[in-house]
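Prompt: May I have another protein with tokenized structure?
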Amino acid sequence: MRSFAQWQAPLPDGGTSEESALVFNQMREKRLLVLPALFDEANKLRRLTVEIMRRLDMSGVDSFLPDLPGCNDSLQPLHTQTLANWQHAAAEAGKLFDATHVLSFRSGALLAPSDVPGWQYAPHGGKSLIRSMMRARSIAAREAGREETLAGIEASGRQDGINLAGWRIGPELFAALADADKPGTGAQTEIAQAEVGGGGLWLRAEPDEDHEQADAIAAIVAVGVAVS
């Protein structure tokens, strides 16, 4: 059954923050940590993410989708967050919820504990994520009669932080993401979009859902969990 739980997430300054987590938890043996995509892609993939969790619940797998500091409903400011702390927070969430496996979406693969078995759905690095967000800002500026080059946007982001698509990203997080290549799979397996079928929902203009894609990803995970 779907419910919400609270958990204590570590912060960059050494403190903690109470954050929410969407959970399907019946204290079963197989327990999946779910790490969402970042920024606007998280919004576009939210319904897909939850529908996958719902299907896994019916397949006997518990799952946990934690809010990280500065993300989703968190009260922490985004501009003070760091990639390293998000990685630490993801690892701590996995321990708290006794996760046996992990499923990450898109750039959420950057946060997945490399030693936990699981899956990376359509993973990509922070470098490509930030570049697409910078490109969108440059296009918007041009349409408004201003000239903002990608090089200029990147320089500003690295020095002072920057607002990209409504997200205020601090300089440390910006630099870490801008330098982050697509992560290796480690103990995890990549789920390519071609295996799922159809186009990636992150490419659509508005948040959407696709039941066939949710079925496909949930089936891959359910079978993998059962044999591991």
Q: What stands out?
A: Helices lie at 40-58, 83-96, 126-143, 150-160, 171-178, 193-196, 211-227. Residues 126-181 form one domain.
